[in-house]
Amino acid sequence: MAPEYILETTGLSKNYGRIHAVRSLDLAIEKGGVFGLLGPNGSGKTTTLGMLLGVTVPSAGSFRWFSEDDSASQRRRIGAILEKPNFYPHLNAWKNLVLVAMIKGVPRDRISAVLERVGLYERRFDKFRTYSLGMKQRLAIASALLADPEVLVLDEPTNGLDPQGIADIRRLVREIGDMGKTIILASHLLDEVQKVCTRFAILRRGELIHQGRVDDDFSEKIVVEIASVNGERLTEVLSAHGSLLSLEKGEERVIASFKQGVTMEEIGSYLFEQRIALTHLALVKKNLEEQFLEIVEKSK
Fold this sequence. Notes:
Elements: E1 5-16, E2 19-30, E3 33-38, H1 45-52, E4 60-65, H2 72-75, E5 78-81, H3 93-104, H4 111-117, H5 133-145, E6 151-155, H6 163-178, E7 182-187, H7 190-196, E8 199-204, E9 207-213, H8 214-217, E10 222-228, H9 231-239, E11 244-249, E12 254-258, H10 264-273, E13 278-284, H11 288-299
Parallel strand pairs: 3-7, 3-8, 5-6, 6-7
Antiparallel strand pairs: 1-2, 1-4, 8-9, 10-12, 10-13, 11-12
């Protein structure tokens, strides 16, 4: 079955004079799950989200939500948080959301449900100014969920939070994703994308350099360095292994990546059974940053 795309962009670009903030961006985001837009500050993430939400006018290119041309009715199907939470400080959470409901034209009967969802129901009558930054961010997510959108767009949702606040927001994002909603999350944190997202894209200086699945590219895979007196036979046998992810040939050794769960003992036994005489077998440790740098290097 062909995938159902919630968002597609074609040649999407934004220039500020001679500065190319976003360059000919082609994205295809499937329905469901959490999609991460990964890149350092200045890579074009916020500019991209601004164009997709109608806040910024593109210099070139186009985009389509729900396989339709841009329209006001589409935007009602999208909840978004682009900047830091901004509510009336002297009002409590409940009254702030009453005002949001009036502005969005949605019934107030969802306020209790969204406050429960973000874990603020017990603090609903406390004034906004008494909230921690993490609680303010959760109230912003509650506000975005009021109209029960199909898509939730979050720009750096854990920025500036303490470790507990970061853990709370990440858990909330995963829970909302599990409800069947599509989430598009911009972040400069590799760890965040790995722990929260199902698919991701990497931006560098406004350009898309990679798009893939987190399980494929940032998994806790096992990477092994192997050598044998018969290099060609070794490569042939490794290629037939059902859990092999990738194979890189060197002058004397090969680097083989296997799916999570495969052990060194299993690899050694497999090669012994295939009558491969090994001269070298060693585990290669690759952390998340190293995996990320591999992707970036291959894109050059």
